[in-house]
């Protein structure tokens, strides 16, 4: 199953313990408590569930869903 | 840092922090509400604030030698 | 052999730099491979300093720099990692890859140089690659690393891939490991560089170890991951013959610029404000949580303990994480917080959270040192659930991350905590979630950390090795804080805790967790408390009555000259008991007893319990108001007093007045009584924190248990003699009174007040051959140092209880009383006297434990969640078992709060909350650590400071009050009160006396404008000022030598300023212990027996001087021929004849030691006061003395003594008395030699007179040349001889040479009898002096005692004791 922007947001929200609707797509996720451990866990999850791989540093550099989408193969 | 209030010290005002326990011999014991009730004792009052528990004990009259 | 690959690395790595050319690897170097040796680093290699870029350090790097500067030779900042690569490896290509990575990584090409402007990093364009390769080629690798061949005992499941090294196995891997460790231990020269090195070890046909070591100043853990990945990427490409992907690393300059930008930004200020706010919210002041109880600087090494939680742990923790919307590292942090809170007995913990510090930043692509550690404060309350704690972790970590660019060093600097061991964070929890997951051209690699940098306290590093291999936990500890066993314990407990957390549900309250492992729990709850013992169901008094029937004629008690047999005591007590019964005394009733220590006191107490009632001891010295209160509260059926007026009448208690009471009409047999073991035996009041004392009711079962245990442990026999000295209002007295009487021993009763006078106690113990006694530790210390403890050889057993027993006191005891045993006991009044015991061992290290539990008693050390603390962890001490009191009389609330349910014993049981902090040792003994509240012990007496504060605050003019016990001089504790308001502090002290018992009246009351407050607004007791004791000083000058000497002694003993002769001892801060010291000093100086009691009655130097005048040499006839040193006593008087100076004051000390019944008269020279002519011959002088002596004692037998010339005179007097037909039964000479021994000496000059005077005072002459010099010396020493007037001194100047002349001219006649001789046996100039020269002049024996001192020292302190002992023995023989 392909990864979508909504799915990304949903997974991120889940990882942060928040409601997806509370996370704007362009929001800096660090402000919501995103940390390296969660990024790595998400990376692992997307690799496992969607076969998508991305570099940690790339995601960590700009932690926002919109910035991540292209890195994760979402147009 | 100072030591925290102990399990038998009054908690923050108004909170239900304590119980009164009783054993078969009619002795009463104050007890923290978060603590498991020891065998041979049962809770007869509370959870209630510390002062309320003390008033309950005072009313009983059997818990201390006279 | 190995070779350092020295080829330069080429390009400087600029930001956005050029592609590296691909030919670096094949620049024509030959690689020799070898196995041994270490790389030598060629100095000044390659990089010219003019091509260096110089940059400042980032704040992160500065932190490391300053840490290294604290200990420049420490290798602790070397971090290192080892990757195990399973597969073939080409070392040349690997080297090439490394070189390229080095070229791409600025941080590796750095050295750090100190300059006046601060440290600078010099970035070289190129550096050599410090790489060592150990490749034995196709050698036979004795493959000890194969799983099946392992000969060590590492369990397979513990380390399935053996990333721990093999121990004991002899092999390539072990050698590599040793090499790595040695390299790691080498300190780095930051100025020289390089700050890193690599090594490659071939440890198998297709198995390699890649070692990478980098100084923490330039690299952190994330940086390592960048380097490792890039190295693998390049190597793999090279192996495949491909071009490696383009470089992506940023530059060091980028990091510096970014750091700079932050630190000059508004965000920096905002972060600073945030952390200042955080610090302000931390209780009193922010403090690291200290598992070891203290902090330390990071050591040069660390201790590491590795463990592997069971498989599946991480998954279960993840489940908890999912439940709480957190991550499993959050759960780990919560677990560590819980552990730390319980292990430090605090509800607030500050952990250290290491942070990558690179999120959202260009630093994500720069290998370097960026990481930060920030304090994470968490609040734990037993009421919260674990899940709630995890949520707290999440939220606080989130908060922390928002301000994470502010560095740990910045926060510490802002708080003034830089330097030394004032760290801010406690244990660190460092979770590294996964492996690198890299491979080297297909060969997989596993990483193992060798060092993560300096360890300030404890770091828990957790690695997730993914792929189902589970977690790897390293506990790294500072060896200055943790030994192996402690570190292992922390780790084991932590893992158990994790296991329990993983298995618990969401609602599990924190209180349900214990940090003790199951084995520890079993140990401290059950094993250490196996004290169950079946006992016969007796009461306190039953065994006494049995005993009386068994040995009626044995001596039950001795008081002064009175003694009572068991039958006698029993009968008297029975009669009184029957009388008490007519007044309503019986089981369940209370009878008060207020009788001073005496036979009657023992009879009364015994009578009360025989009637079946409980006794309530009332100290007659208590203020009337307090006594009335206790009588009203306890409502005894009657009160036994020795005389009318002993107790206040307000309470209306019927009195039984012993004085004049006739109970002879009652039968003398034991009264019947329906007494059970549940009935109360005694009721004793203790200090109450809200201002009123509270009565503790102790049943017979409790005290009977205690006394049976005591007898079984210490085995009193009928020959033992137990001292009763403790006031009956303290429960220690209970075993003093009743234990000996239950077993047929003798009770020796001290006189009232005697317990405060160690000199008296020593004499009593000695005279009565006491074998067992009790001391409060502070009194024991005074007894050992001030009294003649050595004379108490009869003691076999001494108990100490009531306060902490210092190790020094135990050691002093061992020296002074080697034949006796000292036992430390502990217990509150609420638990039948004592519940623990410990046999003290002099010379043993560490604090003295209070010991293990007695019979049928259990001790619990519990944390704030009422869970048992493992050994070594401090908590509150709770007591359970048979010895618990029933409770507090009429105080149900207090009883319910202190006597609470016992979760660990039989169902329905209670435990008593002591309020004492304690911990178990591993051997089943408890150590006392202090209080949790404001109760204190002062000289063994329990005081609630609140009671004193309430009393002070109730006085007029007092706004606020507080009380503390201060120890401004070591070993000297004083109770001091502080008040605000307009009241006069001295008046307040006086006003407290009628309200509080004497031991609770502060030594001083200090008036303050305001109380010092801490940052949280609470009273800061630490900041209360020390009281300064000053006297009235200028009031008047002391009059007379005695007053002057006493004033000086007061000032010295009290260390007070401006003491005047009318200042009272206790107003100057005197305590009863200091009183003992003063009394001892007075005895030394004046030789008079000043008792503590007389100090209480005459507490000023003036009053004391007057008192001494009446008991010692009176001022007026102090210089008369006959000087009564002691006029009273029934024994035949001892006449002590003056030495060369003519004054006999030197014998005062001796007189004091000879006992009250031995009269002593000094005989002094004529002419000291008047102008009489001096005698012409010794014979004439002696005849004169005979007349004077016979005026005092007309007929013999006579006892004579003399020192120096006085000895010669004494011999002459003795001869004359014998010639007159009188009997001389004792002639004692103190280092005196017959005339012929002196004939050859030259005539003395004035100098010798001065010497004589000084010698009289016990000093050798040093540089005194005139009489004024002599007087000055005497004054300085506080000697009463300083009061000699000029006239008298002038006479002495004549008397001395006169004696010398007379001595030389004298001819001795013979004395019929023995000579008792005391020799000053220390080496001396006059080595011809020989006591045998008396032989012709003495018909009997010469019995000698050598004393190791000089002639003038004979009459000082310790030697005087020996002389007195011999004299006393001799006079006893004569008297018998």
From TrEMBL, chain A:
Ranges for region Disordered: 1-21
Task: Give the Pfam families listed for this entry.
Answer: PP-binding
Ranges for the Carrier domain? 1-75
Q: Where is the composition biased (Basic and acidic residues)?
A: 1-12
Q: Which InterPro entries does the protein's record reference? A: ACP-like_sf, PP-bd_ACP
SUPFAM superfamilies from the xrefs?
ACP-like (SSF47336)
Q: What is this protein called in UniProt? A: Isochorismatase
Origin species = Streptomyces corynorhini
- Which taxonomic lineage is given here? Bacteria, Bacillati, Actinomycetota, Actinomycetes, Kitasatosporales
Automatic annotation (TrEMBL), chain C:
Q: Which UniProt keywords apply?
A: Phosphopantetheine, Phosphoprotein
Q: Where does the Carrier domain start and stop, copy by copy? A: 1037-1112
Where is the chain membrane-spanning? Answer: none
Select a single GO molecular function from the record's annotations and give it.
2,3-dihydroxybenzoate-serine ligase activity
Q: Which cofactor does it need?
A: pantetheine 4'-phosphate
What's a GO biological-process term for it? enterobactin biosynthetic process
Q: Which GO terms describe its cellular component?
A: cytosol; enterobactin synthetase complex
Q: Known InterPro entries for this protein?
A: AA_adenyl_dom, AB_hydrolase_fold, ACP-like_sf, AMP-bd_C, AMP-bd_C_sf, AMP-binding_CS, AMP-dep_synth/lig_dom, CAT-like_dom_sf
Locate the compositionally biased regions of type Basic and acidic residues. 135-147
Gene3D superfamilies with a match to the protein in the record: 3.30.300.30, 3.40.50.980, alpha/beta hydrolase, Chloramphenicol acetyltransferase-like domain, Luciferase, Domain 3, Nonribosomal peptide synthetase, condensation domain
Q: Acidic residues bias located where?
A: 149-159
Query: Keyword Phosphoprotein: yes or no?
Result: yes
Q: Where is this region: Disordered?
A: 1-54, 133-171
Pfam families to which the protein is assigned, alphabetical = AMP-binding, AMP-binding_C, Condensation, PP-binding, Thioesterase
The Swiss-Prot or TrEMBL record describes its family as follows:
Belongs to the ATP-dependent AMP-binding enzyme family.
Protein name listed in UniProt:
Amino acid adenylation domain-containing protein
Could you read off the lineage of the organism from its UniProt record? Bacteria, Bacillati, Actinomycetota, Actinomycetes, Kitasatosporales
């Amino acid at each position: 199953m392909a990864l979508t922007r909504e799915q990304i947001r949903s997974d991120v929200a889940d990882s942060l313990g928040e409601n997806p609707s509370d996370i704007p797509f362009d929001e800096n996720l660090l402000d919501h408590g995103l940390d390296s451990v969660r990024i790595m866990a998400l990376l692992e999850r997307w690799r496992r569930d969607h076969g998508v791989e991305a570099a940690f540093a790339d995601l960590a550099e700009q932690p926002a869903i919109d910035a991540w989408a292209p890195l994760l193969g979402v147009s | 840092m100072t030591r925290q209030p102990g399990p038998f010290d009054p908690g923050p005002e108004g909170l239900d922090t304590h119980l009164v326990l009783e054993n078969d011999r009619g002795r009463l014991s104050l007890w923290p509400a978060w603590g498991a009730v020891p065998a041979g004792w049962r809770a007869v009052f509370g959870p209630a604030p510390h002062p309320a528990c003390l008033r309950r004990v005072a009313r009983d009259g059997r818990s201390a030698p006279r | 052999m190995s070779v350092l690959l020295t080829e330069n690395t080429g390009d400087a790595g600029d930001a956005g730099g050029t592609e590296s050319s691909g030919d670096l690897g094949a620049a024509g170097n030959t690689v020799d491979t070898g196995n041994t040796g270490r790389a030598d680093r060629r100095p000044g290699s390659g990089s010219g300093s003019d091509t260096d870029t110089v940059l400042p350090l980032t704040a992160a790097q500065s932190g490391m720099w300053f840490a290294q500067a604290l200990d420049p030779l420490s290798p602790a900042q070397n971090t290192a990692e080892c990757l195990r690569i399973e597969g073939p490896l080409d070392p040349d290509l690997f080297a090439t890859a490394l070189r390229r990575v080095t070229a791409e990584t600025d941080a590796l090409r750095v050295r750090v140089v100190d300059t006046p402007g601060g440290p600078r990093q010099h970035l070289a364009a190129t550096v050599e690659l410090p790489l060592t390769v150990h490749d034995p080629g196709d050698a036979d690798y004795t493959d000890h690393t194969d799983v099946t061949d392992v000969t060590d005992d590492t369990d397979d499941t513990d380390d399935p891939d053996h990333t721990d090294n093999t121990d004991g196995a002899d092999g390539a891997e072990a050698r590599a490991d040793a090499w790595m460790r040695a390299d790691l231990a080498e300190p780095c020269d930051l100025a020289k560089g390089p700050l890193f090195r690599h090594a490659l070890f071939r440890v198998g046909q297709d198995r390699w170890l890649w070692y990478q070591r980098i100084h923490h100043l330039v690299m952190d853990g994330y940086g390592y991951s960048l380097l490792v990945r890039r190295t693998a990427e390049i190597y793999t490409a090279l192996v495949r013959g491909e071009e490696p992907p383009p470089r992506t690393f940023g530059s060091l300059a980028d990091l510096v610029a970014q750091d700079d930008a932050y630190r000059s930004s508004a965000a920096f200020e905002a972060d600073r404000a945030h952390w200042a706010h955080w610090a302000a919210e931390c209780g009193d002041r922010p403090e690291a949580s200290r598992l070891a109880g203290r902090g330390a600087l990071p050591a040069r090494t660390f201790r590491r303990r590795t463990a592997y939680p069971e498989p599946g742990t991480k998954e279960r923790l993840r489940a908890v994480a999912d439940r709480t919307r957190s991550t499993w590292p959050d759960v780990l942090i919560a677990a560590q917080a819980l552990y730390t809170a319980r292990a430090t007995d605090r509800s607030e913990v500050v952990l250290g959270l290491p942070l990558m510090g690179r999120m959202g930043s260009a630093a994500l692509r720069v290998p370097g040192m960026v990481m930060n550690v920030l304090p994470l404060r968490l609040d734990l309350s037993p009421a919260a659930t674990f899940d709630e704690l995890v949520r707290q972790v999440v939220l606080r970590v989130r908060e922390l991350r928002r301000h994470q660019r502010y560095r740990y060093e910045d926060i510490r600097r802002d708080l003034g905590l830089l330097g030394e061991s004032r760290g801010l964070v406690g244990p660190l929890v460092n979770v590294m979630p996964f492996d690198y997951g890299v491979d080297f051209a297909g060969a997989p690699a596993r990483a193992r950390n060798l060092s993560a940098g300096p360890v300030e306290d404890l770091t828990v590093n957790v690695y997730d090795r993914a792929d189902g291999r589970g977690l790897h936990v390293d506990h790294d500890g500072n060896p200055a804080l943790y030994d192996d066993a402690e570190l292992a314990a922390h780790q084991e407990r932590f893992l158990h805790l994790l296991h329990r957390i993983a298995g618990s549900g969401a609602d599990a309250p924190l209180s349900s967790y214990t940090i003790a492992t199951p084995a520890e729990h079993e140990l401290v709850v059950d094993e250490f408390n196996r004290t169950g013992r079946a006992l016969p169901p007796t009461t306190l008094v039953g065994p006494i009555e049995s005993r009386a029937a068994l040995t009626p004629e044995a001596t039950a008690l001795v008081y002064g000259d009175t003694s009572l047999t068991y039958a006698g005591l029993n009968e008297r007590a029975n009669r009184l008991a029957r009388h008490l019964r007519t007044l309503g005394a019986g089981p369940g009733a209370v009878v008060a007893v207020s009788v001073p220590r005496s036979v009657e006191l023992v009879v009364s107490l015994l009578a009360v319990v025989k009637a079946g009632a409980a006794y309530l001891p009332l100290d007659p010295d208590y203020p009337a108001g307090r006594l009335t209160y206790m009588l009203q509260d306890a409502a005894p059926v009657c009160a036994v007093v020795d005389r009318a007026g002993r107790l206040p009448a307000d309470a209306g208690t019927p009195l039984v007045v012993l004085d004049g009471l006739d109970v002879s009409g009652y039968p003398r047999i034991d009264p019947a009584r329906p007494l059970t073991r549940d009935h109360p035996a005694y009721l004793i009041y203790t200090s109450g924190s809200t201002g009123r004392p509270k009565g503790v009711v102790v049943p017979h079962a409790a005290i009977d248990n205690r006394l049976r245990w005591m007898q079984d442990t210490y085995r009193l026999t009928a020959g033992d003699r137990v001292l009763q000295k403790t006031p009956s209002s303290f429960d220690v007295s209970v075993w003093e009174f009743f234990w000996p009487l239950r077993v047929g021993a003798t009770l020796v009763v001290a006189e009232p007040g005697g317990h405060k006078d160690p000199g008296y106690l020593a004499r009593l113990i000695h005279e009565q051959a006491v074998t067992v006694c009790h001391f409060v530790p502070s009194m024991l210390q005074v007894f050992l140092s001030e009294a003649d403890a050595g004379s108490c050889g009869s003691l076999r057993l001494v108990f100490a209880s009531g306060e902490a027993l210092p190790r020094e006191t135990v050691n002093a005891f061992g020296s002074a009383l080697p034949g006796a045993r000292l036992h430390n006991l502990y217990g509150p009044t609420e638990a039948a006297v004592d519940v623990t015991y410990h046999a003290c061992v002099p010379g043993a290290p560490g604090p003295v434990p209070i010991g293990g539990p007695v019979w049928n008693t259990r001790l619990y050390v519990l944390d704030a969640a009422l869970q048992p603390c493992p050994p070594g962890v401090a908590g509150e001490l709770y007591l359970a078992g048979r010895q618990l009191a029933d409770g507090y009389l009429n105080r149900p609330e207090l009883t319910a709060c202190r006597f609470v349910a016992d979760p660990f014993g039989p169902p329905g049981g209670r435990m008593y909350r002591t309020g004492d902090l304690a911990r178990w040792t591993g051997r089943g003994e408890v150590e006392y650590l202090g209080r949790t509240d404001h109760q204190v012990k002062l000289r063994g007496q329990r005081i609630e400071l609140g009671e004193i504060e309430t009393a002070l605050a109730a006085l007029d003019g007092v706004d606020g009050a507080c009380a503390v016990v201060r120890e401004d001089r070591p070993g000297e504790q004083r109770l001091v009160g502080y008040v605000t308001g307009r009241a006069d502090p001295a008046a307040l002290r006086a006003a407290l006396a009628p309200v509080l018992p004497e031991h609770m009246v502060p030594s001083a009351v200090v008036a303050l404008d305001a109380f010092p407050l801490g940052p949280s607004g609470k009273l800061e007791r630490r900041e209360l000022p020390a009281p300064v004791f000053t006297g009235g000083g200028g009031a008047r000058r002391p009059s007379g030598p005695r007053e002057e000497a006493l004033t000086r002694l007061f000032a010295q003993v009290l260390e007070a300023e401006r003491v005047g002769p009318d200042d009272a001892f206790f107003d100057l801060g005197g305590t009863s212990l200091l009183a003992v010291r003063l009394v001892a000093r007075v005895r030394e100086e004046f030789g008079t027996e000043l008792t503590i009691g007389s100090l209480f009655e005459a507490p000023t130097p003036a009053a004391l001087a007057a008192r001494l005048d009446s008991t010692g040499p009176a001022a007026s006839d102090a210089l008369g021929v006959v000087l009564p040193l002691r006029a009273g006593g029934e024994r035949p008087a001892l006449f002590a004849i003056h030495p060369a100076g003519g004054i006999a004051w030197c014998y005062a000390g001796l007189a004091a030691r000879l006992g009250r019944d031995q009269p002593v008269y000094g005989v002094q020279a004529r002419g000291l006061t008047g102008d009489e002519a001096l005698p012409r011959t010794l014979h004439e002088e002696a005849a004169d003395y005979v007349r004077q002596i016979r005026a005092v004692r007309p007929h013999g037998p006579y006892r004579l003594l003399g020192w120096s010339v006085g000895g010669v005179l004494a011999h002459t007097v003795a001869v004359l008395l014998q010639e007159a037909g009188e009997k001389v039964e004792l002639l004692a000479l103190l280092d005196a030699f017959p005339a012929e021994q002196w004939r050859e000496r030259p005539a003395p000059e004035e100098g010798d007179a001065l010497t004589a005077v000084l010698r009289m005072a016990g000093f050798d002459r040093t540089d005194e040349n005139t009489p004024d010099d002599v007087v000055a010396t005497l004054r300085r020493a506080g000697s009463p001889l300083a009061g000699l007037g000029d006239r008298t001194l002038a006479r002495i100047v004549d008397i001395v040479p006169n004696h010398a002349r007379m001595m030389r001219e004298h001819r001795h006649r013979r004395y019929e009898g023995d000579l008792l001789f005391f020799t000053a046996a220390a080496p001396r100039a006059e080595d011809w002096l020989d006591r045998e020269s008396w032989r012709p002049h003495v018909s009997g024996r010469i019995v000698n005692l050598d004393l190791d001192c000089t002639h003038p020292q004979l009459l000082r302190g310790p030697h005087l004791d020996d002389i007195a002992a011999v004299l006393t023995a001799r006079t006893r023989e004569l008297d018998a």
